[in-house]
Predict the structure.
Amino acid sequence: MRLKKSIPNIVTLANLYCGFLSIGFAASGEYNNAAILILIGMMLDSMDGRLARMLKAESKMGQELDSLADIVTFGIAPSFLIYYTYFFQFDLLGFAVAGLFPLFGAYRLARFNVSASTSSSGNYFTGVPITAAGGILALLTLFGNVIPEIVTTVIFTALCFLMVSRIKIPSLKEIPLPKYGTIVTLFLGALLIVIYTGSYTNFPYLIYIATPLYIAYLAYRFVKLKKEKAQRNKE
């Protein structure tokens, strides 16, 4: 039973580990690998909260652990990736600018954690979630060969300010399938086909494990929700 209750935290720690590995790949010059690991982290991040509710294993520790994982995988890892792929040419200034992203992200996470405990509204987010912002940076670097550097710089700057803005972003928590993970899984599934055809090489083997497992998780959620709906209709 204790192992069952620990499953959501294990998934969160796996998310954090993806962030750590992404930083290592970026430092080694394997930028596609680094970006893919951030996207895998998005899949895991979309699962842990729902698993906690499904297994009735929600806890304050799990919430805090999730925030710590998010700042590494979607704050620090994307900032290193953006530095090594774009901002390195500006030397120390580029390093300093890249470092702003996790600062804005950390502030956004802290504000969210405080407001979540004092507000009952779950219909919207205030500011762009760090998960989405980090995922966008990962995608930008993944397709860096076709996206002009000025576009990436503008989007990077905009995301920093959008995370701490007061703009209301609709929440997708009530949608039965995970909000970010579904899109990311479809993207990774398409990417597997590209890899198979030989267009890309040397992607981390985790992609071959994470994508099928996540698709299986989505299928389970879909079947479970369909059964619950049929049960409610009978009643």
Notes: The longest strand covers residues 124-126. The chain has a mean pLDDT of 79.
